[in-house]
Write a structure and sequence with these properties.
CATH superfamily of the largest domain: NAD(P)-binding Rossmann-like Domain
Strand order of the largest sheet: 2-1-3-4-5-11
Order of helices and strands: EHEEHEHEHEHEEEEHEH
Strand content: 25-35%
CATH class of the largest domain: Alpha Beta
CATH architecture of the largest domain: 3-Layer(aba) Sandwich
Helix content: 25-40%
Length: 236
């Protein structure tokens, strides 16, 4: 499998290093500052990108021109960027996830089961923690969890609290912590009367995201056009 890595930073370097160690061919690492080198990169079987949303346009163009697959894990996308991925998936296999940890994929399924059982009688709070270099807040994983928690849109989503807020209403509190080198932690709290339930996933190392991305890459290259996610890996 030939891989083109989007981005030349810490995650891109770790993806390239791990892919080579697993016997894959990395034909290059690219970002928006080196697009003049792209014609010399050749044809990849799959592009793996965890870099920055500014790279999305050239990545989509490359995938279309070379008729390859895409594994995309960059967060902070606006609606037009998400639509660009949706359009690409009509003609190419696209694997899109906010988090490529297998454990987080399981966490999402646990939340999907627990929420209908608890949301009418329990208060819900969502807390995520990341390193001090992370650009977006809340994290893409937190947003994905929030989509599960508030699937029917019946809760008000409150991002942090300050001042005289009064008693809480029908709401879900969302809180983002940033500091140090924290790889990532996501906790969903269900607070009831005299009891509470907390479901947490903690990432000790970014390697888990890289391993998940390469697992997704080996899966997606054999798929037909469409939009895929971690659930497809869990239940294939």
């Amino acid at each position: 499998m030939k891989i083109l890595v989007g981005g030349t930073g810490r995650m891109g370097s770790l993806i390239a290093q791990t892919a080579k160690a697993q016997g894959y061919e990395v034909i290059g690492m690219m970002d928006a500052f080196h697009l003049d080198e792209l014609p010399q990169m050749g044809k990849a079987d799959v592009v793996v990108d965890f870099s920055h949303r500014d790279n999305l346009s050239w990545i989509c163009e490359y995938v279309t021109r070379n008729n390859c697959a895409l594994v995309y894990g960059t967060t902070g996308l606006d609606d037009s960027m998400k639509e660009k991925l949706n359009v690409l998936s009509k003609t190419h296999p696209v694997f899109f996830a906010a988090n490529f940890s297998y454990g987080v994929a399981v966490l999402q399924e646990l939340i999907r089961v627990a929420t209908p059982l608890l949301r009418d009688a329990y208060d819900i709070e969502l807390v995520e923690t990341h390193h001090n270099k992370k650009a977006d807040a809340p994290s893409g994983t937190a947003k994905a969890l929030l989509d599960i928690l508030n699937e029917n849109g019946s809760f008000k989503e409150v991002y942090g609290r300050e001042g005289m807020t009064g008693a809480r209403g029908k709401e879900i509190g969302v809180h983002s912590l940033r500091g140090g080198t924290e790889a990532g932690e996501h906790s969903v709290h269900f607070f009831g009367n005299h009891e509470s339930i907390t479901i947490t996933h903690h990432a000790d190392d970014r390697q888990i995201f890289v391993d998940g991305a390469l697992r997704a890459a080996t899966f997606i290259v054999d798929q037909k056009a469409g939009m895929y996610n971690m659930k497809d890996l869990l239940f294939r």
